[in-house]
Amino acid sequence: MADGAEPDTAAPDTAAQSSGTDVVLSLRSIAKTYLAGDVEVAALRDVDVEVSRGEYVSILGPSGSGKSTLLNVLGLLDRPTAGSYVFEGMEVTDLDEQERTAVRGRRIGFVFQAFHLLSHRTVEDNVALSMLYTGVGTAERLRRAKQALESVGLAHRSSFLPTQLSGGERQRVAIARAIVTDPAVLLADEPTGNLDSVTSESILALFDDLRRRGLTIVMITHDAHVAARADRAVHIRDGRLTELPPAAIAAPARASARGQR
Q1: What is the bridge-based pairing of β-strands 39-52 and 23-36?
Q2: What beta strand segments (E) does the chain contain?
Q3: 252 by DSSP, 3-state: which?
Q4: 55-76+106-260 has which CATH code?
Q5: What is the pTM of this model?
Q6: pLDDT band per the 50, 70, 90 thresholds, residue 36
Q7: CA distance 70 to 48
Q8: Going by C-beta distance under 8 Å and a sequence separation of 6 or more, which residues neighbour residue 73?
Q9: What does pLDDT average to over the chain?
């Protein structure tokens, strides 16, 4: 492939609009309802949450609480039924699909429980391909991919296929892919769910390091031990959010840690 920039996808300049504010994302009175047959199901109810730049926030809740729906709304993968979502200073609920895709690709990083790597492409390719439609040329994509892999301690695995890696290494590749575009926020959905306790701890330590570097992180989890790593935690149940004081997750986190030993 020639070292030319790919056609750039038009997108609202959210980064420019966010200047002068420390708030990365703000949800106000967000609701999301689905139809299950003839029954209307409320997945999110009157959700208010704000995340500041450089903050590490965990969203803690059991299965079926609305965590995945909230992640999809935050990541512009789904539209709320009602309410306001301001991302980097701009209302994004009314963006068309092309604009939403462009903002998502440039300004939001995703890390999932199941890694979602391309098994037939190298580690380096998996990271570089996330920039394919951002207007970045081939050589620069590869340079940034190498840099991102170095930052997660996997530069020595750049030519490997995902099938040749351990679970923890695959998740590190997924994290490198998520941060290579220098996103405004990193959304992590149960990133340690498929890992053993020792590997999970190393991945959580990497998130701690990313937080120290100034990255904004929103962690979706059912595990109080994972949630306790964040600057603050909110609890979701039946589609409603409640801010948790540190003491509310400290005891469950200690119990979870004892159970893992």
Answers
A1: antiparallel
A2: 23-36, 39-52, 56-60, 82-87, 90-91, 108-112, 185-189, 217-221, 232-237, 240-244
A3: helix
A4: 3.40.50.300
A5: 0.86
A6: confident
A7: 11
A8: 27, 30, 32, 44, 79, 80, 85
A9: 89
CA distances from 4 to 67, 99, 103, 141 (A): 40, 23, 22, 11
Q: How far apart are CA 217 and CA 230, in angstroms?
A: 9
Tell me the sheet residues that pair with 225. Answer: none
Average of per-residue pLDDT across 103-118: 94
- The backbone region for 20, taken as left when phi is positive above 0, alpha when psi lies in -120 to 50, beta otherwise, is left
Q: What does the alpha-carbon distance between residue 110 and residue 74 come to, in Å, rounded to a whole number?
A: 11
Going edge to edge, which strands form the sheet with 39-52?
Answer: 39-52, 23-36, 82-87, 90-91
Residue ranges covered by each domain of the chain: 55-76+106-260
CA 56 to centroid of chain Cα atoms: 11
- How far from the centroid of its chain's Cα atoms is residue 227's Cα? 14
| Gap between the Cα atoms of 75 and 83, Å rounded | 16
Q: Are 100 and 72 in contact (CB under 8 A)?
A: no
Contact predicate 174/112, CB 8 Å = yes
Structure tokens of 56?
């590490």
Task: Tell me how many helices (H) and strands (E) the chain has.
Answer: 9, 10
Would strands 56-60 and 217-221 be described as parallel, antiparallel, or unpaired? parallel
Is there a contact between 217 and 207 (Cβ–Cβ < 8 Å)?
yes
Extract the tokens encoding 203: 């991945």
The radius of gyration computed from the CA coordinates of the chain, to the nearest angstrom, equals 18
| Strands laid side by side in the 185-189 sheet | 108-112, 185-189, 217-221, 56-60, 232-237, 240-244
